[in-house]
Amino acid sequence: xxxxxxxxxxxxxxxxxxxxxxxxxxxxxxxxxxxxxxxxxxxxxxxxxxxxxxxxxxxxxxxxxxxxxxxxxxxxxxxxxxxxxxxxxxxxxxxxxxxxxxxxxxxxxxxxxxxxxxxxxxxxxxxxxxxxxxxxxxxxxxxxxxxxxxxxxxxxxxxxxxxxxxxxxxx
Length: 171
Description:
Blueprint: E1 2-5, E2 9-11, E3 17-18, E4 23-26, E5 30-33, E6 36-38, E7 43-46, E8 51-54, E9 57-59, E10 64-67, E11 71-74, E12 80-81, E13 86-89, E14 93-101, E15 106-109, E16 113-121, E17 126-129, E18 133-136, E19 141-144, E20 148-151, E21 155-158, E22 161-164
Parallel strand pairs: 1-4, 2-5, 3-6, 4-7, 5-8, 6-9, 7-10, 8-11, 9-12, 10-13, 11-14, 12-14, 13-15, 14-16, 15-17, 16-18, 16-19, 17-20, 18-21, 19-22
């Protein structure tokens, strides 16, 4: 299916949202607040504005989450799974979630990126920010083997149990 607005799009469903090979498109700003969000092989996009998603969990396999400006995704402590997916913003990016998987994913922020998660598995991922790149999993596990992490103003990766492959770029 397709949900599209020429300008701003605000969605506040009371239950889960399933975007399977569909499109949720805003010409400017996008705000989605609700339960579990599934975006498998779909596209969720704010063409020229910000995208703000506040959901109880996020599952994305081979899908796109795009914002022309800032991107904010908060799963309120729920799982955040985006294997084989692309996240991109034209400005800063904020990610808040519980157990998170970005295996084989491409995550790009046009400004700074701040990810505060309970655990992160980002193997074979490309993660980059034009500004500062921060990923913090607190006491959780942080695994990023065969991944590339780049930032224009520095990289800070923290976690109690951190595994990084040293022959990839981290700067």
